[in-house]
Amino acid sequence: MVKFSGADGSPAVQRWADLLVSEHLALESAATLPGVEAAKSRIVTYEGRTFLEVERFDRHGMFGRSALNSLSTLDAALIGEGSTNWPQLAARFATAGLIAPDDEARIQHLWWFGRLIANTDMHTGNLSFRPQKLLLLAPAYDMLPMLYAPLPGGEVPVRSFEPPLPLPPQKPVWAVACAAALRFWNHASQDARISKEFRDICASNARRLKQVADRL
Known about the structure:
alpha+beta
């Protein structure tokens, strides 16, 4: 699967290019979470465009494919809660014996990681499972700091990132996700494929997240 930016050099196009590189880096950082897999990706630039190539993990060879169910579909079919909170749904699935405790923990880590990299688009279509005897968590995908996406009209508003804080029982999971999120923000702040403006935003977010982590 390929996502790509425009090529006109406008602020919105530049921001989308930055976000495509950020998604690549976010997937790499997500894969450092305990037991978490992430879709493999790479960045290609050509004639002013940035391309994000993401390897489909549900496709095999020219014609093969494996079953994949989104959390949205599974919730509608099996639970009917209608929530967008990944850990809340994962807890329901675990209680019903549909997923293993290890996958419930992985979902908690991914959820906090996404929130700590300013992913404001963590809907239930962005988490999937492989249906087997138990539902097995599929690799992470569509993980990026969507807080900074341009508006539909092309405006690139100034956004403020305030890291979400955990409740006391959530601190251990939060701390692990925070370490991966800091890795992401620091890598993005130093990646020359990202514009200086957005690198500065990433550096600021890394400092802010570190301050919050040091106080907990």
